[in-house]
Amino acid sequence: MEAFLHQVLSGLATGSIYAIVALALVMIYQATHLVNFAQGEMAMFSTYLAWTMLDAGFPYWLAFAGTVALSFVLGVAIERIVIRPVEKAPVLAVVIVFIGLLVILNSVAGWIYTYTIKSFPSPFPDRTILGGYVSAHELGVMAVTMGVLALLFLFFRFTPLGLAMRAAAQNPVSSRLVGIRVGWMLALGWGLAAAIGAVAGMLVAPIVFLDPNMMAGILLYGFAAALLGGIDNPAGAVVGGLAVGVLENLSGAYLVGTELKLTVALVLIVGVLLVRPSGLFGRVVVSRV
Amino acid sequence: MARLLGPDGRRVGLALLLLAACVLPFLLSSYRTFQLTSALTYAIALVGLNILTGWNGQISLGHGAFYAIGAYVAAILMDRFGVPYWATIPVAGFVCLGAGYLFGLPALRLEGLYLALATFALALATPQLLKWKHLEEWTGGVQGIVILKPDAPFGLPLDQDQWLYFFTLAITVLMFWLARNLLAGRIGRALVAIREQPTAAEAMGVDIAFYKSMTFGVSAMFTGVAGALGAIVIQFVAPDSFTLFLSITLLVGIVVGGLASLSGAIWGALFIQFIPNVADHISKAAPWAIYGLFLIACMYLMPTGVAGLLRAAAARLDRAPPGP
Amino acid sequence: MRIRTLALPLAAAALLAAQPAAAQKKYSPGATDTEIKVGNVNPYSGPASAYGAIGKAIGAYFAKVNDEGGINGRKINYITLDDGYSPPKAVEQTRRLVEQDQVLLVFQPLGTPSNTAIHKYMNAKKVPQLFVATGATKWGDPKRYPWTMGWQPNYQTEGRIYARYILENKPAAKIAVLYQNDDYGKDYLKGFKDGLGAKASMIVAEASYEVTDPTVDSQMVSLKASGADTFFNITTPKFAAQAIRKAYDIDWKPVQFLNNVSNSVGSVLTPAGLEKSVGLISSYYLKDPTDPQWVKDPAYLDWLAWMKKYNPDANLNDTFNVYGYTAAQTLVQVLKQCGDDLTRENVMRQAANLKKVALPMLLPGITIDTGPDDFYPIEQMQLMRFNGKTWDAFGQPIGG
Amino acid sequence: MTAILEVSGLTAGYGASPVLHGLDFDVPVGGVATILGANGAGKTTTLRAVSGLIRAAGEVRFAGERIDRLAAEDVARRGIAHVPDGRGTFVQLSVEENLRLGAYVRRDPAGVARDFERVFDLFPVLKERRRQQAGTLSGGEQQMLAISRALMLRPRLMLMDEPSFGLAPLVVREIFRIMRMVNREEGVAILLVEQNASLALDLASRAFLLETGRLVVGGSAADLKADDAVRRSYLGY
Predict the structure, then answer these.
(1) Contact present, C46 and C40 (Cβ < 8 Å)
(2) How far apart are CA C256 and CA C228, in angstroms?
(3) Quick one: which of A75, A97, A289 has its CA closest to A201?
(4) N or C: which end of chain A has fewer CB within 10 A?
(5) CA distances (Å), origin D14, targets A237, D48, D199
(6) C-alpha–C-alpha distance, residues A183 and A85, integer Å
(7) Which chains have 3 or more CB–CB distances shorter than 8 Å to chain D?
(8) Model confidence at C2, in pLDDT bands (50, 70, 90)?
(9) Is C19 helix (H, G, I), strand (E, B) or coil?
(10) Cβ pair C32, C17 in contact under 8 A
């Protein structure tokens, strides 16, 4: 029973990492209706930027804020420079551009920073709580995830810009007719996603260590989490992330052993989606014409 | 181009292409012949994925799994049961037809991204399952299976690479012919109708469920045949050969080549076979960065793939006033 | 890129190759009066790119050799190609090296799957597949595969070393194992179980992980729950660091054995936390460039000078740079012994004729030894224990 | 009477095939103009070309300023509210959010708050449903919402695309009553595209008849009403 509880706690801790990555995916999805496969590598690259700043002697929070801001700008720039030319191309062409972006970022990071793992500091105290099964950092990750979620909720719900972004994603033509610059809303969505990704990267790195392949596995779980929770619902993404973390741990520890734990977790997720095709909390669009 | 040359011109063009394909192995080194053989196997796999994704609009990020099943069926039959190599190909095709059809049944309920996730899961699970201890007796576990390369039969004056090339070429021609007949007629129209106007297709009496899951099966069959050929060409199968990256590579192939285009499969195959080598040649420090640049450049210049670009060029030629 | 400039003298070499060799000189393809073509396949792209450092380090060492006049007056023309850690690509690239570039030998191709894929081909073509960069056991089989030779101590040997240590010093141990679910992890595990022999039931818990797993936290929680008091950590650097830290954080204090793959002070123990690594037992055959005990070692200083001059982009913390450096030195030794008889047969004969070769970055007491029936060049390892700052050797170098 | 919108030589289409061939028309300040025509004559395309949703050749002036090179969002920012065909509802947002979006470009919160009250006065049903998801409204309610959203911009000109389409006669009458009121009381000019010619001609002061991309008749609404050809083809008596 004790071990069971610990597996659940540890699953929640890992799950909060998936949750925050899933949040970033949901951001871009809400803005563009596309899943950005390069999201993980963008987060990894941002984390290296933070590492560079820390290495140069910046205090942690300055590096943190600087990285988030810089990532926001880079996200906007990527949308305007890399994605814009294929805006009107078929969806799969855009997916291929994402894949191109993914391999470029991965390879360039390896080239600049080499593949040796680097430790990345945590802003939280180096302590463990709850009998050592959750570290202060992991708890901090959960808190930050919830905080980011709350900020996003407030932003989308109560600011004109947030409203405009939602409108632009849903109905670009009507949005232009009320004066919304739809192109910039997409870029803004990318910027926000990149900024959240940067936060995710900086919180993940102290746990998994920083290396160019840091986000590969996590993105995959984040993708599953986002779909499980409902790709258009930030709160759902967080619940999905936590659920995937726990599910994975329990299936590994009690169901089939570690050799097939990923397989089983994925089968379960797909199973849930068969029953609820738009995810646990996905919005079912009600519409009368 | 088709209209420009007319149906006869097209037939002549194909014949010339085939002739060139037959002459090439006598002009090239065995190594180049081997590369072309492997490009041909990719082309078959790409036709398979293209039937599903290009024609029918179902996105699969997991076709590497069917490639792997085909490869392992061939390897296990040859290694454990002494089945001759040529006989493993149809078996691999049928096994994948079944596997694809079965996977297609639940996939019916999933669309777009969700289908992408399900197939993605398949791609991730495949190497894990191949390593699984309860299957190790068959799959050879992490060590994989080494198989022998066939000699040319009937005392033909061909070396192993040349013979395998012709063997693969024959199967490629057969599979392309099969795909063309399948897609040119009623079935092809039904697939496109399901992709473009599912509601209208249903109203017209198209059995969407059957078509979609069967498309999955047929698509997997093509890819499985390619996998079996790939295993024989490489003489080795192992879980590391069939990672998620293979599935992604196949997707890259059909998009760069051109969706819903048979000739696109050839262009795509050439791209995924040769461009990584070019990238490696340009930079050892970051070959993937070069590869990524190639990908993005391709999508900028040819958002509908090589085949789409050629089609547009041909249309422009047709429209242009005839010369003096 | 230094590696690419090495390939430049190709055209000149082709001209020279056309001239008949002098009477006493014997050449196979790839060797001439002025150059020796050495091929290599490494993952420079894809998820295993970290290993690409080895291929680059080898090139950087050959550049130094060439700058100093080459081997018996011949320059090494090093052609290294990317296989992305994919066996089919490895076959393709190897065939290119052998058939198109016509190399004398293929040196240090990396990875068990890639080497397995080209194993038969190299032996059928009778081209040396020399000093492969993998720790699997199957590379030392001169009867069936006379053209293939390993280099590093194999994983099974190392597993057996720890097993023997446990049997001697902790016969009542309850052992937990964490391993990577692939050929490398399973090879270690097999050697370890073989070493325990009838006592294999001492292993009370096994957990595996995939390279795509973000963390091994869940596995560590399970292993602790098994009640084990001894832990064998068969993981690559990132996961090794995670496991060491997690064990400490969840207050699990077993006797820990750490595989050689991940025992770098600089790139594993420091990220994991030095104080969390105290008491770890591991084994070495190379000097760890990040271990403070070598700071004044002349061999280390030579290595450092070489790194700065020839491999400046590489990471000084990365043990792969010692690995590539030492492996390259081994090949240079073989080629020197070949003299003017640069046939593939003689290369294999000389590779199987290394006697007590002590290379600078090998640990004191560890040498390279081969013979016609012994295709395992390095077979000894030195057990060491981590004291919080550096590794302390204990006992004599031992073999499996 | 000067014109708020002057269009000359407007040519536009989709891809390579032009739909409109050199239209000339205008909308007087504070007036209502209507373009009549059969299905496929190019009525919707005309509005889209004016509001910048599609590229067009020719000259479009709004209050004297050239707007034919502007993007749709910039046209909207100058005070032209386009109520598109199909009503353009943000179906997943609430009624209130739809209205807030209408006022997106405005920077006078007090004025926006007053306009909220005003549209709720005009259409009390929207006030009742302000928290409801807009996609759940009936067709008539969605049309009211679309007009209200346009009004929230405080436009000087409204482009209305088939406001009567698919609605019950009672609802249509109510909507036209309110459009007339808005025009009379606040001086908002309207360019109305309508299949229901008799309704349109009642509201409009100027009218144009569009046939396969060309304006064939233009003049005062009264003249058009009296025109035999128009009567037979479009008014049905």
Answers:
(1) no
(2) 11
(3) A75
(4) N
(5) 40, 11, 30
(6) 12
(7) A
(8) very low
(9) coil
(10) yes
For residue C379, which of C242, C272, C299, C285 has the smallest C-alpha distance?
Answer: C285
Predicted confidence at residue B2, as pLDDT, reads 44
| C-alpha distance from C366 to closest chain B C-alpha (Å) | 30
CB A75 within 8 A of CB A193: yes
What is the C-alpha to C-alpha distance for residues A248 and A266, in angstroms, rounded to an integer?
9
Q: pLDDT tens track of chain B, all 324 residues?
A: 444 556 677 788 888 888 888 888 888 888 899 999 999 999 999 999 998 888 888 888 889 999 999 999 999 998 888 888 898 999 999 999 999 998 888 877 787 778 888 888 888 888 888 888 777 778 877 788 888 888 778 877 788 888 999 999 999 999 999 988 888 878 788 888 888 887 777 777 777 788 888 888 999 999 999 999 999 999 899 888 898 889 999 999 999 998 888 888 999 999 999 988 888 888 888 888 999 999 999 888 888 888 888 888 888 777 655 444
Residue B291 located in a structural domain: no
Q: Which two tokens stand for residue D85?
A: 């065909």
CATH for the C155-284 domain, from 3.40.190.10, 3.30.1060.10, 3.40.50.2000, 3.40.50.2300: 3.40.50.2300
Q: Which of C46, C95, C113 sits opposite B34 (nearest CB)?
A: C95
Query: Cα distance from C97 to chain A (closest Cα, Å)?
Result: 24
Cβ pair A185, A31 in contact under 8 A: yes
Roughly what angle, to the nearest 10 degrees, separates helices C320-338 and C298-310?
A: 100
- Beta strands of chain D (E only): which ranges? 3-14, 17-28, 32-37, 56-62, 65-66, 80-83, 157-161, 189-194, 206-211, 214-220
pLDDT tens digit sequence for D125-158: 999 998 999 989 988 899 999 999 999 999 999 9
The Cα of D202 is separated from the nearest Cα of chain A by a number of Å equal to 27
Tell me the H-state helices in B185-304: 186-196, 198-203, 208-234, 244-257, 262-282, 287-301
Structure tokens at C190: 């097999």
Q: Which domain holds residue B41?
A: 31-242
The verdict on residue B151 lying in a domain is: yes
The DSSP bridge pattern shows strands C380-386 and C398-399 to be antiparallel
pTM value is: 0.87
Residue B150 per-residue DSSP state: P
Angle between helix A2-32 and helix A160-170 axes, rounded to 10 deg:
80
Nearest to D158 by CA among D11, D31, D2: D31
Distance CA C361, CA B211 (A): 65
Question: A2-275: which CATH topology?
Answer: ABC transporter involved in vitamin B12 uptake, BtuC (1.10.3470)
With beta carbons under 8 A apart, name residues in chain B contacting C56: 284
Asked if the Cβ–Cβ distance from A217 to C237 is below 8 Å, we say: no
Rounded CA gap, C107 and C86, in Å?
18
Write down the CATH superfamily of domain C26-153+296-381: Response regulator (3.40.50.2300)
Q: Which of A96, A113, A220 to mutate to test the interface with B (most CBs of B within 10 A)?
A: A96
| pLDDT digits 0-9 by tens, C271-330 | 999 999 999 999 999 999 988 889 999 999 999 999 999 999 888 888 899 999 999 999
Domain with CATH 3.40.50.2300 in chain C: 26-153+296-381, 155-284
The structural domains of chain D, ordered by start, are: 1-79+155-237 (3.40.50.300), 86-153 (no CATH)
What are the domain boundaries of chain A? 2-275
